[in-house]
Amino acid sequence: MHRGVVLKVSEESISKAAEKVRSGGIVVYPTDTVYGLGCDPYNVEAVRRLIKVKGERRKPLPILASDLNAAARIADFSREAKLLVSRFWPGALTLVLKSKGTLPPEVTCGLNTVGVRVPDNMVALKLIRLCGGLLVGTSANKTGAEPPRSVQEAFKQLGEEVDLYLDGGV
Questions:
Q1: CA 39, CA 44: separation in Å to the nearest integer?
Q2: CA atoms within 13 A of residue 145's CA, in its CB half-sphere
Q3: CA 60 vs CA 27, 67, 155, 167: distances in Å
Q4: Which domains does the chain have, with CATH numbers?
Q5: Cα 15 vs. chain centroid, distance in angstroms?
Q6: How far apart are CA 1 and CA 126, in angstroms?
Q7: How far apart are CA 123 and CA 134, in angstroms?
Q8: Are 136 and 128 in contact (CB under 8 A)?
Q9: Are 128 and 69 in contact, with CB atoms under 8 Å apart?
Q10: What DSSP string runs through 20-50?
């Protein structure tokens, strides 16, 4: 498959996107907020490529999780944090928590914290589950540009630098 492929959301296209992520690729996908740009957070080469595609940055990359159990593999959840997620996840709330140190420094910028959330979007959740429960979840735009609310806006900014785009509509 060539880079820059745009596929309408379907069971098959979500599976193809997950295969791409598992093989070190970068994908754009719909979320409950804006379109996301993702890769396997444990694949250092994919993370470096994603950072290059997005534009050099000195900020940690947020992580999307399929559920609290997946999020707990990378972050320590206090009683208060668990109370927050019971109320606001799935949803747009990102918690910055103490990292368990399992993610590469390319993701965390060497910090001992990680931003994590569970999105309220069935396409994103299915993709994340098929990718093992965790996915880089930054916005699908160049650093400093407006985050995209459609796959067309994302493609306009990132083009063929991304392997696959999932078009979930606006």
A1: 10
A2: 20
A3: 18, 21, 23, 26
A4: 5-15+25-145 (3.90.870.10)
A5: 16
A6: 21
A7: 14
A8: no
A9: no
A10: HHHTT--EEE--SSS-EEE--TT-HHHHHHH
Tokens of 13: 């296209």
Q: How far apart are CA 73 and CA 59, in angstroms?
A: 21
Q: What is the pTM of this model?
A: 0.96
φ/ψ of 139, rounded to 5, equals -75, 150
The model's pLDDT over 36-45, given as tens digits with 9 standing for 90+, comes to 999 999 999 9
Q: How many residues does the chain have?
A: 170
Write out pLDDT tens, residues 108-132. 999 999 999 999 999 999 999 999 9
Q: Are 65 and 134 in contact (CB under 8 A)?
A: yes
